[in-house]
């Protein structure tokens, strides 16, 4: 007979005593269970004790999470969160340096648990830590020369405890004084500072900036780009990552009118070349967090173009019209004619002829072409940059096309406008950075005007592809589609420089694109005859069942997810996997990203599949309705899903990528008996169905199938060729 569902068999440890095996009745109050355990070891005042998970996390058992205890768990009897918080609150104020250091180390570890954190914060612990940072450091700095390692550890553990406590989101960041901000900033501004202290200080500054507009202004007054740059010139990638994160946070929260000014300062300080030399081209491989911060910086730099991209040209603005005149002057080597240089009609006719050669749609008033947003004035800026910095290529393209027949000319003006719009779409200009993306391109860090140079390479590609396709004006959209494919394929290999990108495009000629398309078309060949369609319908359920089994097997292997936090700097992870019998979801927190699968017995929590009511995706997820920096952007919404169980309880996920999102939503829907509708399922269905169809039809192609089986051969005359292997 199986044990009752409410009874859990566990082992409970107590220092200096043998562990006890015990059956816990989950219907009984937790206080009654703790009292029973205390009485077993003759301990009084049971209300001062609590139970913890006996693993690296040391999380307290509460009424809220007690149902996560499973058979075979090892628990530890320890002092209650309140008592522990009270003791540590007193010990960190000790006059003994050794006692203070040990207690701060314990506090840094204990603060990861939200139950303890709440009790310590209730004792005004955050204020105590900030006071220690503000005033205590001066006192300890006198001892720094003779006790430098101790001082560094003391401050490091103080800041670590502060970061862990703030990470729970219990206390608002707006409550901190200017003195505290100045002190944290001073640790960053010093040239020689303990590495751990510097890391924590940079993490605190980033969180302040991202979580409070008021603190952004205060931090911006204390920290300058010039003071942050030396930290990028070292070899510690963690320090470099934290530093770039602070720069990104300052950039992201800066008012729009100050971002251009900040970008100008970054250019003056040669930030791009410093990052290129010391980070991107460093012998140390770039880890995921650094790749994410470089991606964020890339996005923020491109977003500086958003204002120009969304600005229409004013046909009456003479300064803007002068840019078009400059394009004409460079192309045709003409000077501005004096007012008496001919009749008005003659000059208008000459302008119209030249604007037609330049490839504008509106030959009379080309300014009208730039009233479309996007790309607005950004297209005109790119054209002028190309004309000034790549003058020979610009003149050659314009003159080449002006000497062709009208229907075969590649209109430079129209092409530039549409190409700029396309490049903005490819690089997602104007969109917020995603929390989970690491897609940075090293080549964009190799030039101060990387977008403009990118445009210059692509406009020459467009002209080359136009000639290769022997295109006419009716083929304009087809040419743009081919150019887009060429650019996307070249970007996919992540070239390290603009020259490498250019070389890659040289290998992706129109002929090569046709070969690639032909190859892909053959692989995706579709059969439309009625017997074949009937065979497809017959095979489809088998393929769907195969996909379903693959999804469930993948869920059984499990996935590591990032823990949802308002502060992204310190990564926390949790793991979730399906039991082999497909009846329970096991999940739990991890100290670090795992290498390989995590066994079921190391995951503390479980959720029976029978209790799952629904799977919710996107903006309907409860964790997507919360306010937080970078949370409401499109890419994070596309990776979010939640599992609803019981009445209003949720298990919230943000998948590491689109692939894992599709696997998990498909698998969960399959467990609930619902249809798997992800893009990944459709792709798998098409691929497997096409493969199965080809395999089944393989024997029918030019092969004579005999009506009778072939005869059995005669026995050999002797068996001399047989020998005994033994």
Automatic annotation (TrEMBL):
Q: Name one GO cellular component term.
A: plasma membrane
- Output the superkingdom of the source species: Eukaryota
Task: Identify the keywords attached in UniProt to this record, alphabetized.
Answer: Apoptosis, Cytoplasm, Membrane, Phagocytosis, Phosphoprotein, SH3-binding
Instruction: State where it is primarily located.
Output: cytoplasm
The molecular function terms of the Gene Ontology recorded here are: SH3 domain binding
State if Membrane is listed as a keyword: yes
Show where the ELMO domain sits: 319-491
Location relative to the cell: Cytoplasm; Membrane
* Pfam families membership: ELMO_ARM, ELMO_CED12, PH_12
Tell me the GO BP annotations in alphabetical order.
actin filament organization; apoptotic process; cell motility; phagocytosis
Q: What does this protein do?
A: Involved in cytoskeletal rearrangements required for phagocytosis of apoptotic cells and cell motility. Acts in association with DOCK1 and CRK. Was initially proposed to be required in complex with DOCK1 to activate Rac Rho small GTPases. May enhance the guanine nucleotide exchange factor (GEF) activity of DOCK1.
The name this protein goes by in its record: Engulfment and cell motility 1 (ced-12 homolog, C. elegans)
Q: Which organism is it from?
A: Xiphophorus couchianus
Q: What is the lineage of its organism?
A: Eukaryota, Metazoa, Chordata, Craniata, Vertebrata
């Amino acid at each position: 007979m199986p044990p009752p569902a409410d009874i859990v068999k566990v082992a409970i440890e107590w220092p200096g005593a043998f562990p006890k095996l015990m059956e816990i009745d989950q219907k009984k109050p937790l206080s009654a269970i703790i009292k029973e355990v205390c009485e077993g070891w003759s301990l009084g005042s049971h209300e001062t004790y609590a139970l913890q998970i006996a693993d690296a996390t040391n999380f307290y058992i509460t009424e809220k999470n007690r149902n996560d205890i499973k058979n075979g768990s090892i628990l530890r009897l320890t002092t209650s969160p309140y008592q522990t918080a009270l003791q540590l609150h007193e010990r960190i104020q000790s006059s003994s340096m050794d006692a203070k250091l040990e207690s701060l180390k314990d506090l840094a570890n204990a603060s990861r648990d939200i139950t303890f954190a709440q009790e310590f914060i209730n004792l005004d612990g955050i204020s105590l830590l900030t006071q220690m940072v503000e005033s205590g450091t001066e006192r300890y700095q006198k001892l720094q020369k003779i006790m430098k390692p101790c001082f560094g550890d003391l401050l490091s553990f103080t800041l670590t405890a502060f970061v862990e406590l703030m990470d729970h989101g219990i206390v608002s960041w707006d409550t901190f004084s200017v003195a505290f901000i100045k002190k944290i900033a001073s640790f960053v501004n010093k040239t020689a500072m303990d590495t751990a202290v510097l890391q924590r200080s940079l993490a605190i500054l980033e969180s302040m900036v991202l979580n409070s507009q008021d603190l952004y202004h205060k931090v911006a007054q204390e920290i300058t780009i010039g003071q942050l740059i030396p930290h990028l010139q070292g070899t510690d990638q963690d320090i470099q990552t934290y530093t770039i994160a602070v720069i990104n946070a300052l950039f992201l929260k800066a008012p729009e009118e100050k971002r251009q000014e900040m970008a100008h300062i970054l250019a003056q300080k040669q930030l791009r070349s410093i990052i290129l030399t010391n980070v991107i081209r460093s012998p140390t491989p770039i880890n995921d967090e650094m790749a994410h911060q470089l991606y964020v910086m890339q996005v923020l730099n491109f977003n500086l173009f958003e204002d120009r991209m969304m600005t229409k040209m004013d046909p009456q603005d003479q300064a803007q019209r002068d840019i078009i005149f400059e394009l004409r002057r460079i192309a045709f080597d003409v000077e501005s004619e004096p007012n008496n240089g001919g009749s008005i009609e003659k000059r208008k006719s000459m302008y119209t002829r030249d604007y037609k050669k330049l490839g504008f749609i509106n030959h009379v008033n080309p300014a009208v072409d730039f009233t479309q947003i996007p790309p607005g004035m950004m297209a005109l800026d790119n054209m002028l940059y190309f004309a000034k910095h790549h003058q020979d290529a610009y003149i050659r393209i314009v003159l080449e096309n002006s000497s062709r027949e009208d229907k075969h000319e590649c209109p430079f003006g129209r092409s530039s406008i549409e190409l700029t719009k396309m490049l903005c779409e490819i690089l997602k200009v104007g969109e917020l950075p995603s929390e989970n993306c690491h897609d940075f391109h090293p080549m964009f860090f190799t030039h101060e005007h990387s977008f403009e140079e990118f445009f210059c390479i692509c406009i020459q590609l467009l002209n080359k592809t136009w000639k290769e396709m022997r295109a006419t004006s009716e083929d304009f959209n087809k040419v743009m589609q081919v150019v887009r494919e060429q650019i996307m394929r070249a970007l996919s290999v992540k070239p390290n420089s603009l020259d490498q990108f250019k070389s890659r495009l040289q290998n992706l000629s129109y002929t090569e694109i046709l070969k690639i398309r032909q190859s892909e078309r053959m692989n995706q060949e579709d059969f439309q005859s009625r017997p074949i369609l009937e065979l497809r319908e017959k095979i489809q359920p088998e393929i769907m069942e195969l996909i379903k089994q693959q999804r469930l097997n993948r869920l059984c292997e499990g996935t590591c997810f990032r823990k949802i936090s308002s502060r992204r700097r310190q990564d926390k992870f949790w793991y979730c996997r399906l039991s082999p019998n497909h009846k329970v979801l096991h999940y739990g927190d991890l100290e670090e990203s795992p290498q390989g699968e995590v066994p079921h017995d190391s995951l503390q929590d479980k959720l029976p599949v029978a209790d799952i009511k629904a799977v919710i995706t996107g903006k309907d997820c409860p964790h997507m309705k919360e306010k937080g920096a970078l949370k409401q952007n499109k890419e994070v919404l596309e990776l979010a899903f939640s599992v609803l169980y019981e009445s209003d309880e949720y298990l919230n996920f943000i998948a590491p990528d689109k692939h894992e999102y599709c696997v998990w939503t498909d698998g969960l829907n399959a467990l609930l008996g619902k249809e798997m509708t992800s893009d990944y399922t459709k792709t798998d269905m098409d691929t497997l169905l096409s493969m199965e169809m080809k395999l089944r039809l393989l024997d029918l192609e030019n092969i004579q199938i005999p009506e009778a089986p072939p005869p059995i051969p005669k026995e050999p005359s002797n068996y001399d060729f047989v020998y005994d292997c033994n």
